Amino acid sequence: MPANAVLHVADVHKNFGGLHALSDIDLQVEEGTTHAIIGPNGAGKSTLLNVCIGRIAPSSGAVVFDGEVITGKKPHEINQMGIVRVFQTPEIFPDLTLLQNVMVPAFAKRDGSFTVNAFQSANNQAEIREEAEHWLADVGLDAQRDTIAASLSRGDKRRLELAMGLVQHPRLLLLDEPTAGMSRHDTNSTVDLLKKFKERGMTKVIIEHDMHVVFSLADRVTVLAQGRIIADGKPEEVRGNPVVQEAYLGGAH
Ligand SMILES: Nc1ncnc2c1ncn2[C@@H]1O[C@H](COP(=O)(O)OP(=O)(O)OP(=O)(O)O)[C@@H](O)[C@H]1O
């Protein structure tokens, strides 16, 4: 594994009964890069992400993060190590304000867990609050910090979830279809936001169907089809690859 690889998915296979959802998956995510994983429906993208965060155990192979094998660790342990996933359907607390939403993972990161009492206790509240305010501002939601999260638009819920991820200071951010279901306007502002993170050198893995988003952001693209890697390289190499065009780009997407 190159010295600058943050994540190495090493020869991973995953079978669901007789179905080979992932076969011979070997890929490396290098420090500071945005690595896109694309492929048609059912290609195995979500399964791969779930293997990386410990939600699905591979049938064989291993995932190595920062030089340490993380296969077999629990999702919260992997999260504590610095892999943060932002979900396709935002996992937020609808009844809490935006600020409280971002304070929850900030408390959890600091204390290893979160209880509702944390909001009442004055112990280091100011520091956590300041940090949450900083990341809300970073995603452009500072003006709405006292709004109840349930009332946000879909695009803003995803921004909120990004702030909840950033407050954890991720070593690796995994984004599962960050623009799914968004208007073109919201998609463009999300791309701008992710470009800003890229300029800061944040390492990201992104699963995305929108080719405009992929080619705007990715340094490297891995293409899956039927659970196998059919291409891996720079965006322009992948775009011109006839196998990819046949399997994916020339199809419904
Ligand atoms: N828990 C499961 N049990 C059985 N089969 C599963 C399970 N999860 C996924 N699969 C199957 O594994 C294959 C890969 O699914 P996966 O969701 O990883 O694909 P994907 O590339 O993320 O697709 P999409 O773009 O539609 O989200 C599919 O054939 C799917 O039906």
Automatic annotation (TrEMBL):
Coiled coil: none annotated. Gene3D superfamilies: P-loop containing nucleotide triphosphate hydrolases. PROSITE patterns: ABC_TRANSPORTER_2. One of its GO terms (molecular function) is ATP hydrolysis activity. Pfam families: ABC_tran (PF00005), BCA_ABC_TP_C (PF12399). Residues 7-251 form the ABC transporter domain. SMART domains: AAA. Keywords: ATP-binding, Nucleotide-binding, Transport. The keyword Transit peptide does not apply. InterPro entries: AAA+_ATPase (IPR003593), ABC_AA/LPS_Transport (IPR051120), ABC_transporter-like_ATP-bd (IPR003439), BCA_ABC_TP_C (IPR032823), P-loop_NTPase (IPR027417). SUPFAM superfamilies: P-loop containing nucleoside triphosphate hydrolases. One of its GO terms (cellular component) is plasma membrane. The keyword Nucleotide-binding applies. Transmembrane segments: none annotated. PANTHER family: CONSERVED COMPONENT OF ABC TRANSPORTER FOR NATURAL AMINO ACIDS-RELATED. This is Branched-chain amino acid ABC transporter, ATP-binding protein. It comes from Nitratireductor basaltis.
